[in-house]
Amino acid sequence: MYQKKDRYKALITFVYNDGKLTAGDKVMSGMVLKEVVADKTNIQNSNKFVEEFLRDMDRMSIFTTHGKRRLMNATFSEALELVENYDDSYQVLENIK
């Protein structure tokens, strides 16, 4: 779980261009993000990981979808905080199983 959280924070930093982008800006397409992750990392099943990342970001309301466009719904610092706290809520749900 900690590795996933660290990877999510790294992807948030990349997608937000080190905080230069903010709420309301466009998120890069999933295809571009998949290519970058596949080329620059050694993550196995990188496409699946990126799809899961985008789904989780939508679920946490960090990103929002308008039509076919995905937009940033939170500031960079809010996104990092939500990802940091994601671990806690996920762990509670895992304990219920």
What do you see in this structure?
The chain has 97 residues and is mainly alpha-helical. It has one domain: Winged helix-like DNA-binding domain superfamily/Winged helix DNA-binding domain (Arc Repressor Mutant, subunit A). Helix content is 62%, strand content 8%. A two-stranded antiparallel ribbon has the order 1-2. Helix 2 (30-40) crosses helix 3. It starts with a helix and ends with a helix. The model has no long low-confidence stretch (mean pLDDT 85).
CATH homologous superfamily label:
Winged helix-like DNA-binding domain superfamily/Winged helix DNA-binding domain
Helical residue percent? 55-70%
Mean pLDDT value: 85
Assigned CATH class: Mainly Alpha
Which key phrases capture this entry?
two-stranded antiparallel sheet, mainly alpha, 97 residues, Arc Repressor Mutant, subunit A
Concise summary:
The protein is mainly alpha-helical. It has one domain (2-96): Winged helix-like DNA-binding domain superfamily/Winged helix DNA-binding domain (Arc Repressor Mutant, subunit A, Orthogonal Bundle), CATH 1.10.10.10.
In terms of topology, how is this protein built?
Blueprint (H helix, E strand, L loop, with lengths): L1 H14 L14 H11 L5 H14 L3 E4 L2 E4 L3 H21 L1
Antiparallel strand pairs: 1-2
